[in-house]
Amino acid sequence: MKITLKTGGLFTRLLPAGTTGNTAEMDLPDNMTPAGVVGHIGGDMDGKFLLVVNGKAVPPSERNTMTLSDGDHLSLMPPLKGG
Fold it and tell me: Is 60 among the domain residues?
């Protein structure tokens, strides 16, 4: 299956080599979960980030159970920090 992965902040370093900008199209096994994608790209599952699938936030309780579909858009965003 193919998804589009968009990241922000320091998470852009997790995108595949050769990626320009903060978005990459990725080929992944079928039935991958949002948490599975984070693990696949080498991200830490500490939960201190926002996952959004097709414009809707994924609650932490669903990160390991929700399955992605071909054509989905997944955003992985770091927490906002204020000052």
Answer: yes
**Farthest CA pair distance, the chain:** 41
Q: Where are the beta strands (DSSP E) in 1-83?
A: 2-7, 23-27, 50-53, 56-57, 73-77
**Element of type H or E holding 34:** helix 34-40
> How many domains, the chain?
1
pLDDT digits (tens, 9 = 90+) for 32-71: 999 999 999 988 767 678 999 999 999 999 999 999 999 9
- The percent of residues above 90 in pLDDT, for the chain, comes to 66
The domain containing residue 36 runs over which residues?
A: 2-77
